[in-house]
Amino acid sequence: MTTLARVTESPLVQVATEAERRPGTIKLCYGESDLPTPAFIVHAANEAALAGHTQYTHTAGAPELRAAIGAKVHELQGVELRGTEVICTVGGTMAIYLAIRAFVGAGDNALIISPAYAIYANAAVMAGGEARHVPLAADGNRFVLDIERLTRAIDARTRMIVVNSPSNPTGWMITEAEQGALVDLAARHDLIILSDEVYERLVFDTDIAPSLARFAERGTRDRVIIVNSFSKTYNMTGWRLGWAQASERTVRLMYAAAEFITSNPTAMVQQAGIVALRDGEASVRRLRAHLAARRDQVRTVLGTLPGATLAEPQGAFYAFLRIDGLTSSASLASRLVSEAGVALAPGSAFGPGGEGYLRLCFAASDATLGEALVRLQPHLKC
C-alpha cells in the first residue's frame, strides 16, 4: 500500500459534499470568511499582471515579498527576520507539508497537539511517518497544553511536535509560558517544532497572539518552523499564498523540494501580497471587529444550551461545541444538514480528541449566522 492510499477522506468533506447537494443549506463547515477579498488587494493583483508579473519567480518567492514578510514580522512581533529566512508557498498548506516532509520520514513520528486540522496528521502519513495525536487538556470551557502527556508520547522515533495557535478548531491560544515549556521539551529531546500561526492576527482579548518566533530569536531558529498565510488575515483563501519562516538552512531544504512539487506561488498574487502587508492594517482591524461581534452572537446562543459546553474562542473564528453523550459527531453533522439545513464540521474530522464536538465557523454575516443559529437550536437541545 502506498502512503497516499493511507490518506482517507475527511468527515468534514463528506458533510460539505452532502451540503452542496442540498440547495439552501447554510455552510458553516468551511474554514473561511464569507467576506470578499478587499478591493485594494484585487486591484493590486490586476495591476501587477498588467505590469508584467506573469512569469516564474524564485521558487522561494520574489525577494521583495520575502523582505516585506520579514519587515511585517518585525513590526508585529519585534523579531528580526531576513528575507532569506522566508519561503513563500502555495498557501499555508504547502508550507506545512514541506516542513513535515523535510523532517519526518519512514518510521518516524510527529506529535500533533489536537484536536487539530487533519492536514498535519495526513502530511506525516504522506511522508511515510506516523501521526500521534496528543490532546489538549480541558480546563472548564478552555483548553490548556498538557506537557506531561506530550512528554510521555515522545520516543526514539519522534522528530517533530506540531502546534496550531490560535487553534482550528478549538479557538485555544497558547500562552507564552506554554510556549517556553514546549521549546524546553523540544530542546531536551532534539525535536523540531512546527508552529502554525495563520490566525495570529484574529484574536479577541489581545492585539496579537504570542508567536514562537520570539523563542526562535533566542538561538533556536534551527529548531522552530513557523507557518503563516494571507488567507485568513486578508480574506485571500482562494489566492493560495502563504509562507514559512525558519533558519536559512531549513528554508533552502524546503524550497529545494518545492521546486519539484509546486514551484513558486503565482507571480501577480505575490505582488498583491506585498500590497496587503503594506496597506492592510485598516482592513485587518475591520475584520477583527466583525469577528468579535460574530463571536458574541454565537456565545449568546450556543453558550447557554443545556447539555452542551462551548469552548471559549480566544482566537481564530470557530465555535467548538461539546454535546454531552455525543458518540458520533459525523452522524449528527449529517443529520443537521438534512433536518436543519445547516452544515457544521464534525469534531471527528480533527482527530480522536475532537469526537463529541461540532465546529461552527462564525466568519459569516450577521444575517447568515443569525439564521443558522435559529435553525440549529431545536436540534442541539439535549
Task: Describe the protein in words.
This protein is α/β, with parallel strands linked by helices and 382 residues long. The protein folds into two domains: 4-37 and 282-380, Aspartate Aminotransferase, domain 1; 39-280, Aspartate Aminotransferase, domain 2 (3-Layer(aba) Sandwich), CATH 3.40.640. The chain has helices spanning 11-20, 39-50, 63-77, 91-103, 119-126, 147-153, 176-189, 213-220, 248-258, 267-279, 281-302, 329-340, 366-380; strands at 26-27, 86-89, 109-114, 130-135, 137-139, 142-144, 158-164, 192-196, 224-229, 242-245, 308-310, 318-323, 342-343, 345-346, 357-361. The strands form four sheets. It has a seven-stranded mixed sheet, with helices on both faces. A hairpin with a 7-residue loop joins strand 11 (308-310) and strand 12. Helix 1 packs parallel to helix 12 (329-340), helix 2 (39-50) packs across helix 10 (267-279) and helix 4 crosses helix 5. The longest helix is centred in the C-terminal third of the chain and has 22 residues, at 281-302. It is globular and about 55 Å long. The mean pLDDT is 95.
